[in-house]
Design brief:
Blueprint: H1 13-16, E1 42-49, H2 53-64, E2 70-77, H3 78-89, E3 97-100, H4 107-111, H5 119-124, H6 126-131, H7 134-139, E4 149-150, E5 155-162, H8 163-168, H9 177-189, E6 193-196, H10 203-217, H11 219-226, H12 236-250, H13 267-273, E7 277-283, H14 286-293, H15 295-300, E8 302-305, E9 320-323, E10 327-330, H16 337-345, H17 350-358, H18 378-389, E11 394-396, H19 398-401, H20 404-418, H21 424-433
Parallel strand pairs: 1-2, 1-3, 6-7, 9-11
Antiparallel strand pairs: 3-10, 4-10, 5-7, 5-8, 5-9
Protein name: Extracellular solute-binding protein
Keywords: Signal
Organism: Streptomyces nitrosporeus
């Protein structure tokens, strides 16, 4: 089970969130700041409704035992979350605190002056400043300012592989791009698809673009784009990334039918666990997905490693991409900002981190390493935590880092690139023109 926008290892709920707007009648009653608490009022906190909510509810119950201002947790079904939050933030009954993904997911609220800038608070408060991994705090920021406090587990993208196939064909986990190309050739010659890819879902293709751009040009290239400069798509590293993707496709790295393979219904994971594909670039939730679909494979033959280095690239090979975590942000209109921040500070506690571990998540707190031995797979948990802990930069998934007006055409253009319906040069021009 994965936290945040992923439920039971699947990322499909992410797109459902863009569905029809939820009727608001009756659902917003009692939301927002008020004086309904027994002593000092109420803080309303919106959270994405999935299996991880029990961890947040336990934190709320604990906080309420000693706080005069009580937190009321409102669990919103995942498919309705984005639309309900948007509607609520434009109403008199907006939540005091709300769950988000950082980046583009909060930019409209930042631009409208609706969020509390937490930068100064974090710098002055040791609990917040030292409580979380630096790359995670930075990943949730906008224009160098902090608007969110981490509140769920990390989800870096990792390179998963079938250990049995690698052993049978004498292949080592690729550390360099040259290693990866040799592995592609070896598995192709053996009649095995080198990489599983759920092309019909579009977003799995995005991960290749994210890592390649980071390795080739460094995180600064996308950061420029995220900050609103669409000319950043014209950076030479973007073209080189698109050209490298085309080379992979032309070389048969993903097989011939990847555009009809899905992830949400288990297509790509099944190719990996059945030995029909050797590798799979996917978020860390792939482990729990495989554990659910093919438990023996997950326990015995599922391997994982970092994305390889790319010769001549300027990006640090320790950088990671994916979903750093989810965040709590505070509404600037809240009557209880100080109390809301006190609640946010409990996210750095050992008790909260342990609850995340017990739920199968990897906390983003600085103290998490010592707790991971109780994880369902301690080695995987330790490797994942170490990967993020050592990362100088953790780039948020592009389609979450960007506002919808850019994220939607981005997925469309990447899909066209992978399908061979557009050239790398045309991809660049299309993204530069996106408005």
């Amino acid at each position: 089970m994965r936290s945040g926008i992923f439920t039971q290892g699947s990322r499909t709920t992410r797109w459902a969130a863009a569905g029809a707007a939820l009727a608001m009648a009756g659902m917003l009653a009692g939301c927002g700041s008020g004086d309904s608490g027994s002593d000092g009022g109420t803080i309303t906190a919106y959270v994405y409704g999935d299996d991880a909510v029990k961890v947040q509810q336990a934190a709320v119950d604990s906080f309420n035992k000693t706080s005069k201002v009580k937190v009321k947790l409102v669990s919103v079904p995942g498919t309705d979350y984005v639309n309900k939050l948007r509607s609520a933030m434009g109403s008199p009954n907006a939540p005091d605190v709300f769950f988000n993904w950082g980046g583009g997911s909060i930019k409209p609220y930042v631009d409208a002056g609706q969020l509390v800038d937490l930068t100064g608070t974090v710098k002055k408060d040791a609990t917040l400043k030292e409580g979380f991994l630096p790359s995670i705090m930075e990943a949730g920021s906008l224009d160098g300012k902090i608007y969110g406090v981490p509140m769920r587990g990390m989800q870096p993208v990792m390179l998963f592989y079938n250990k049995a196939l690698f052993e049978k064909h004498g292949v080592e986990a690729p550390k360099t791009w040259e290693d990866l190309q040799k592995a592609i050739t070896t598995f192709k010659d053996a009649g095995i698809t080198p990489f599983a890819l759920g092309g019909s879902d579009k977003w799995p293709e995005l991960m290749w673009m994210e890592y390649l751009l980071d390795r080739i040009g460094g995180p600064e290239v996308f950061r420029k784009i995220q900050n609103g400069d669409t000319e950043g798509w014209g950076d030479p590293a973007v073209l080189k990334t698109a050209q490298t993707v085309k080379e992979l496709i032309d070389d048969g790295a993903f097989g011939k039918n990847f555009n009809s393979v899905d992830y949400g219904n288990g297509g790509a994971p099944t190719l990996l666990n059945k030995g029909k594909a050797a590798m799979h670039l996917m978020g860390s939730w792939e482990y729990s997905t495989q554990l659910g679909k093919a438990p023996e494979f997950a326990k015995k033959d599922l391997g994982w490693t970092a994305f390889p280095t790319v010769a001549g690239g300027t990006g640090d090979p320790a950088n990671v991409v994916g979903n750093p975590t989810n965040y709590w942000s505070v509404n600037a209109r809240s009557d209880h900002k100080e109390e809301a921040i006190e609640f946010l500070k409990t996210m750095a506690s050992e008790t909260y981190a342990k609850a995340l571990v017990d739920n199968g998540d990897i906390p983003t707190t600085s103290n998490a390493a010592s707790m991971l031995s109780s994880s369902p797979n301690p080695q995987f948990a330790q490797d994942q935590y170490s990967l993020v802990q050592k990362a100088p930069s953790f780039t948020l998934s592009w389609d979450q880092a960007l506002e919808a007006q850019y994220a939607t055409p981005l997925l469309t253009e990447i899909s066209k690139l992978f399908a061979g319906k557009t050239t790398p040069e045309q991809f660049v021009e299309a993204m530069k023109a996106a408005k």
